[in-house]
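Predict both folds.
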Amino acid sequence: MTFISETVKKAVLWTYPRTSWQWDVLCVLCLIFIFLTPKTWFDNSAYQRTHMGQTAIVVSTDVVGTKLDRAEVERRARVELGRPSGQISEVHERYDESGKLVAYEVDIR
C-alpha cells in the first residue's frame, strides 16, 4: 500500500527525475489530454448556466455591438443556444471594472 501511495504522491507532485521513464509517461499523458480532449470542454464563447429551468447565456458586444438592440441580442441568444422558439425573460447589461459595456446576459427558457 505504501508503494501505491508513494507512486501517486510522486505523480501528483511531479517529483520524478527529468531523465526517468516515469517523467516521459507523465508528459505523454499530458499530451494525450491536450490533443484528445473535446473542444466543447473549453468552449466559453457562450457561457451558460442552468437554474430552475432557465438558462442564462452571455452574448458579447463584439457580436451585437454596444448599442442595445434588444431584438438582435435576443435573436443571437436563441441562435447560440439552439432554441429558436425560446422565450426571453430578461436582458442584463454586463460591464467590466472600468465601466465599459462588454456583454449582455440573456435569460431564456
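Second protein follows, with its predicted C-alpha cells after the sequence.
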Amino acid sequence: MMRLLLLLTLICSCTKKKEILPPEKMQAVMWEYIKADIYVSEYLKKDSSINIEKEHAAILKKIFAKYNISKEIFFENYQYYTSRSELMNPLLDTIFARQTKKNEIQINKIRR
C-alpha cells in the first residue's frame, strides 16, 4: 500500500500542469503572432532568396522569447482559448478593435 501511494504521488508530481496565460498576455502574443504571419505571407514570400520557413521560425522564436513563453505553451493556450468561445471571442474582438483604431489613425494622418 505504501509503495502504491508513493508511486501515485510520484506520478502526480511529474505530470506537467498546463500554464494558462491570462487573456491580456495571450492577446498580446496572438497580436504579434498574427502580424508575423502577415509579414511573412505578404512581404517575405516575394523574395525568393529568403528561406521563408526559417525566417518565420526565427520571428516566432523572438516573439515567444519576448513574452517568456515557449512555442508549446503558446499552442497549448491557443487550443485552450479556441475551445472556449467565451474567452476567445473577447480576445479576438480586442485584436480587431486595436487594428481598426490603428487604421483610423493612419487614415487621419493621410487626410491631413
